[in-house]
Design a protein that fits this description.
Elements: E1 2-7, H1 12-23, E2 27-34, E3 47-51, H2 60-66, E4 72-75, H3 86-104, E5 111-116, H4 131-147, E6 154-159, E7 163-165, H5 178-193, E8 198-200, H6 201-213, H7 219-226, E9 231-233, E10 240-243, H8 245-252
Parallel strand pairs: 1-2, 1-4, 2-3, 4-5, 5-6, 6-10, 7-8
Antiparallel strand pairs: 9-10
């Protein structure tokens, strides 16, 4: 069974992933990296909450003792571009996952790093591309580049959910921001009018956990399982996968 690392589990996506990890019989240990205690983890022996303040640095003791044996990470840590300065948004969205991927690459001969990006991210930004699209796209490309350089153990899954819909069953700790509360009000209309732009948390969590805990075969085997509309297997000798929201919904099933 797998030992996975999870970040962002006090948010909407991460809390759903944590719930799915707790249920999964394919996962033996979930190491949660969080700046504060996680109420949702209480009472679950397989979940270890590690209080960690600096997401650009991973001390040797943390890697060799608390994270030893981990084979995958779901990086769900993030922030709205409207809630941070451009500099802070770049640090959280780009610098944090890159630092983590580099550090975690040493934990296993093959390490699945699953990055929760977002619908609209682009690898070819234009003059009017919004901040989130440019920075998330750059994060995806930077993560893919790592696997072809000095971090050959990395297998990168970039996943682009749309509006993350908790379906009226929030699991996250704390109060949602004003913008998210507005989106919750609009959620029923989005589900009906724009279903391809919505990512229900149940299906999102299922696919993210599948990528980190189940897709452990070689490049061709994983590509064969995931191939179809909305999924691109990147060029290169080592595994890199882009899952658009339409592919995410397809893989999640009805």
């Amino acid at each position: 069974m797998a030992h996975i690392i999870l970040t962002g589990c006090t948010g909407t996506a991460g809390s759903a992933v944590l719930a799915r990890c707790i249920e999964s019989t394919s996962i033996s240990t979930v190491s949660v990296l969080s700046r504060r205690p996680v109420q949702q983890a209480a009472g679950h022996d397989k979940v270890k909450v590690i209080l960690h303040q600096d997401f650009t640095s991973y001390p040797t003791q943390l890697l060799q003792e608390q994270l030893k044996g981990a084979t995958a990470c779901i990086w769900a840590l993030g922030i709205s571009a409207n809630a941070a300065s451009p500099s802070d948004y770049n640090t959280i969205t780009l610098d944090y996952p890159l630092a983590a991927a580099k550090a975690f690459a040493s934990l296993s001969p093959l390490f699945n790093f699953v990055y929760v990006s977002g619908k609209g991210a682009t690898h070819k930004p234009g003059r009017f591309s919004p901040l989130f699209a440019r920075v998330k796209g750059q994060a995806e490309l930077s993560l893919l580049a790592l696997r072809e350089t000095e971090y050959p153990s990395l297998r990168i899954f970039n996943v682009r959910p749309g509006f993350i819909d908790d379906e009226g069953k929030p699991l996250r700790d704390g109060r949602k921001s004003f913008s998210y509360r507005i989106m919750d009000v609009a959620a029923p209309a989005f589900r009906t009018l724009f279903p391809d732009s919505v990512s229900p948390t149940t299906g999102l969590a299922d696919v993210l956990v599948r990528c980190c805990a189940e897709e452990l075969g070689d490049r061709k085997e994983v590509a064969a399982k995931l191939k179809g509309k909305g999924v691109t297997v990147e060029d290169g000798d080592r595994l890199g996968v882009l899952i658009e929201n339409v592919g995410l919904r397809r893989l999640a099933g009805p």
